[in-house]
Write a structure and sequence with these properties.
138 residues; alpha+beta; two-stranded antiparallel ribbon; 2 helices
Length: 138
């Protein structure tokens, strides 16, 4: 069963899943070509689609689902509900939501702690095309 996504989540999921059939295979063995030193890319390694949530808990609302092999920018980590023995949750910048670190491979990169419980609370309060969390555009 699929969930209804917001227009922003649909656009982000479309960007992230484009070409996942080839990306899923390549992502497990190589660093993405779009890797930069200041960006940590995470690859979804869950069996079924990975649920992106509005809080670092399996009780959080599902915002989107990402198929295995999808990639997104991992901004930071917090401690949340333990999943498969891992209490860490990552904030994904592209889909703007939380995923359990148990299902995301960062290629061995250390993910810094988030400065707050929600690294970008303003995105939920705005209906605009400009990303309020993109500090490069300000």
């Amino acid at each position: 069963m699929r969930i209804a996504l917001s227009p922003v989540a649909v656009a982000a999921a479309a960007l992230l899943t484009a070409g996942t059939a080839t990306a899923a295979t390549a992502a497990t063995t190589a660093i993405p070509a779009h890797h930069h030193d200041d960006v940590i890319w995470g690859t979804v390694v869950s069996g079924p689609d990975l649920k992106v949530r509005d809080e670092p808990s399996t009780h959080g609302e599902i915002l989107a689902k990402l198929p295995p092999g999808s990639q997104d920018r991992v901004k930071c980590a917090v401690s949340g509900m333990t999943v498969r023995g891992d209490p860490h949750w990552y904030w994904l910048e592209g889909v703007r939501g939380w995923v359990s670190a148990a299902y995301v491979d960062t290629g061995g990169h250390h993910v810094p702690a988030c400065p707050s419980a929600d690294p970008c609370p303003q995105w939920r309060d705005r209906d605009c095309h400009q990303d309020p969390c993109d500090h490069h555009n300000h």
